[in-house]
Amino acid sequence: MQALIDAVKAAGLKALSFQGKVGAEDKADGSPVTLADKAANDILMLALSETGYPVLSEEGAHTPWEARQHWQKFWLVDPLDGTKEFLAGRPDFTVNLALIDGGEPVLGLVYVPATDHLYVGEKGKGAYLEVAGERRAISVNPDGTPPVVVASRSHPAPELAGWLAKLGEHELLSRGSSLKFCAIADGSAQLYPRFNPTMMWDTAAAQAVLEAAGGLVLTLAGEPLGYRRENLRNGGFIATAAARLLPEPS
To answer: Which residues bind Mg(2+) 1 (predicted)?
Structure first.
């Protein structure tokens, strides 16, 4: 585990060293990518090559489904989640690393280089937050009154207003990157509805942290969000501290 922690921290600090110094180019899907993404990815790929498991990274070659469907365990990597926040000079961008086993995220590391916050969650072992070398266990708080809803700062969705109306009284916070999941995992928020598209590497690491902290992530059809599938793009989902907090379906 320590080797993984060292790798995500090294990748994050490398990315941070580029902030304010680089611009972005557009990838084929229109999303921005920077030299920071690529430098952080190189560090992670080198570290993960020692594990023996295949790697699927946002910034690497995307292995075809014909091969991926046979992967029992693999790493999912986003070397810089929250590129728009990074380019805007904000601190809420992360390095995301998840281990997928049988389509389920069983280990997740989310590192915030700007604040030196590290979130770690492992199935069956719980979750913790490490700040400046000090660790404390974290868990969800489903009893916030009113519930705190975290929403995307850079990707607002038109469906959100209607969903919030059905939810009723709430407090709304904006966050970037996978920190929306982490806010639920550490008990400072209760719900994160997502209607706009995301990719598997955007969600897996923080989902592992949240689930290890006692929360869950459900598709809009009410099924667990899983990762054994051909399509790398996620549909809509709701991350929550408890299923009972979700508004009744219309």
So the answer is: 58, 78, 80-81, 202
- Is it the case that residue 30 has pLDDT exceeding 50? no
Q: Where are the domains of the chain?
A: 2-138, 148-245
* Residue 37 annotated as part of some ligand binding site: no
Q: Is 83 annotated as a binding residue?
A: yes
Binding site annotation covers 143?
A: no
pLDDT for 104-122, tens place per residue?
999 999 999 999 999 999 9
The fold for domain 148-245 equals D-Maltodextrin-Binding Protein; domain 2 (3.40.190)
CATH of domain 2-138: 3.30.540.10
The DSSP line for 91-159 is: S--EEEEEEEETTEEEEEEEEETTTTEEEEEETTTEEEEEETTEEEEE---TT-SSPEEEEESS---TH
| Interval 115-144 mean pLDDT | 96
CA atoms of 59 and 13, how far apart (whole Å) = 17
- Is 26 labeled as ligand-binding? no
